[in-house]
């Protein structure tokens, strides 16, 4: 059997992205303005029905629609179906779970629900029942946490990937395997650390979470850190550090510099380092990540 070429692997990766985004067919190359289309349909529904309605077979098919034969229709008749949204747009919500537009009320509701959780189990239940984040509509599972809730060291990434979405645990793919080796190098494993993500649902196609999605999920990860109450917090990548510390520096400038993270009654030591996924793409940077982990081991020994 011939080996797959680089072009074939790129096509497979693109198809996987489309599948994760909810695309199941391809029609045309022109983007569809769904807001304008919805407004036109609403205007048509508001108009009175004509005395001599146009037969279905004579009705024109709108541009960028596909005609799919329906069971029970006469030959030659078809009903137009909307084309899929272009790649990069949120996947359509499944029936019974309408998408929501993020606003201040939803963020306030997330903050209220997160604050009401008195334990990690209650916080997980709150996330499972929370419908204010549209990422939940496309993700297979909630990726809450892994490791020891009583650990002194907590590691926080940005968002789950494909493998994490399937297994429901953070950092279980290739980047997670590298993270395990990095922890083992300083004498730790998953039984002695606690791992979570700033966003607990996988974005479609592994895209970057939007600022609105991150802001909606922020009260939950903030409460999660408070309930774990670690001595040391490690941000894996700049995204989680920017979300929870409010800093704007890039990871190259930020990494290795110790900061403080405020808890309920005290502060935890905090540091940012390279995300394992970045280290897989840039292996030369592992030497700097190794320095960061040596510093983490030293801080744990001193605290």
From TrEMBL:
InterPro entries: UDG_Type-4/5, Ura-DNA_glyco_family4, Uracil-DNA_glycosylase-like, Uracil-DNA_glycosylase-like_sf
Region span, Disordered: 70-98
Domain Uracil-DNA glycosylase-like: 144-294
Domain of life of the native organism: Bacteria
Skewed-composition ranges (Pro residues): 81-95
Pfam families from the UniProt entry: UDG
Record has Iron-sulfur as a keyword: yes
Catalysis performed (reactions): Hydrolyzes single-stranded DNA or mismatched double-stranded DNA and polynucleotides, releasing free uracil
Keyword annotations from UniProtKB, A to Z: 4Fe-4S, DNA damage, DNA repair, Hydrolase, Iron, Iron-sulfur, Metal-binding
Coiled coil, from the record: none
CDD domains per UniProt: UDG-F4_TTUDGA_SPO1dp_like
EC number: 3.2.2.27
The keyword Iron is annotated on this UniProt entry: yes
Biased composition (Polar residues): 70-79
Family, similarity comment: Belongs to the uracil-DNA glycosylase (UDG) superfamily. Type 4 (UDGa) family.
Protein name, as recorded: Type-4 uracil-DNA glycosylase
Taxonomic path: Bacteria, Pseudomonadati, Pseudomonadota, Alphaproteobacteria, Hyphomicrobiales
């Amino acid at each position: 059997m011939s080996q797959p070429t680089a072009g074939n692997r790129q096509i497979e990766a693109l198809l996987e992205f489309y599948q994760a985004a909810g695309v199941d067919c391809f029609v045309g190359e022109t983007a569809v303005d769904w807001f304008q289309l919805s407004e036109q349909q609403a205007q048509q529904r508001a108009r009175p029905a004509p005395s001599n309605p146009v037969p279905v077979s004579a009705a024109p098919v709108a541009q960028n629609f596909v005609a799919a034969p329906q069971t029970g229709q006469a030959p030659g008749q078809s009903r137009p179906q909307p084309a899929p949204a272009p790649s990069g747009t949120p996947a359509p919500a499944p029936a019974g779970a309408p998408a929501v537009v993020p606003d201040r009320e939803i963020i306030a509701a997330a903050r209220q629900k997160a604050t009401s959780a008195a334990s990690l189990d209650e916080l997980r239940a709150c996330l499972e029942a929370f419908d204010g984040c549209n990422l939940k509509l496309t993700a297979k599972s909630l990726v809450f946490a892994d490791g020891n809730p009583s650990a002194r060291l907590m590691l926080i990434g940005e968002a789950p990937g494909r493998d994490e979405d399937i297994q429901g645990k953070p950092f279980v793919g290739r980047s997670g395997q590298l993270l395990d080796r990095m922890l083992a190098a300083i004498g730790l494993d998953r039984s002695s650390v606690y791992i979570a993500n700033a966003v607990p649902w996988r974005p479609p196609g592994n895209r970057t979470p939007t600022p609105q999605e991150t802001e909606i999920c922020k009260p939950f990860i903030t409460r999660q850190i408070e309930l774990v109450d670690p001595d040391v917090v490690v941000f894996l990548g700049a995204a989680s550090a920017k979300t929870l510390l409010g800093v704007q520096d890039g990871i190259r400038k930020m990494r290795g510099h110790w900061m403080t993270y405020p808890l309920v009654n005290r502060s935890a030591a905090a540091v940012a380092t390279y995300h394992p996924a970045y280290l897989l793409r840039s292996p030369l940077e592992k030497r700097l990540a190794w320095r960061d982990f040596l510093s983490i081991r030293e801080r744990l020994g001193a605290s």
